[in-house]
Amino acid sequence: MNKKMIYFDIDGTLLTDEKTILSSTREAIDRLQKNGHEVAIATGRNAVMAKELIDELNLPNYIVCNGAAGFFHHEMVYSNPLDKVSIDRLIQVADANGHQLIYETAKDLKRRSHKIDHAVESGMKHVGFDVPDHETDFYKYNDLTQLLIFYTEEERHLYEDGQFPEFRFVRWYEKGMDVLPANGSKFETIFKLSTDKGFKKEDIIAFGDGMNDYEMIGNVGVGVAMGNAETIVKEVADMVTDSNNNDGIYKALKKLDLI
Questions:
Q1: pTM of the model
Q2: What is the DSSP letter of 69?
């Protein structure tokens, strides 16, 4: 069997709805590694937010910030930061409309406003993290790989009607949006990192559930949608497995004869 590179989303995929890791998932990851495959995460989180899981599962490879940074054997091998001039323009619109922002680098998070509104608090709670510390000008001195901005679907016209062609907006929560480079995605970084390390497309496998997994599930060699995945993600998948709460990862890897 050819050596594979296998990517897993975190929330809704590696983690259950209660933010725990199933024993079957731990066993599957361990067996993949013992069988000589490269295992990675591909997440919207940055490396700090993913660190506990990276350490817990002993994962040396990780694509973070929805593809804006990639690490292979704990070394950053790819980065695609947001354009600083465009960030300034977006901040002006956000401030004018009272929309809060969280800055992200591959390894840090800071919030723009000294105030904390409910959208930020509930959004960070949704992913199991505290609201980050305040540092208004953090973006001026750091290369941002991602922004989190908090607005409703009814307010999307303020940002998503062509005002910011340099950015791609992906909703991950009721009022939470990821702001990404327009030319970047989980799949683009997965494909670049994997092929740079000698993997053919047919030997790249990805598991996911959400809209930010849509492109990678539809374009890798084998895309596996979790049973709890968005319908549109299931429609482009090569395989639909059981849910994140019911041994979906283990069952799919057994069916693929990888463990």
A1: 0.84
A2: E
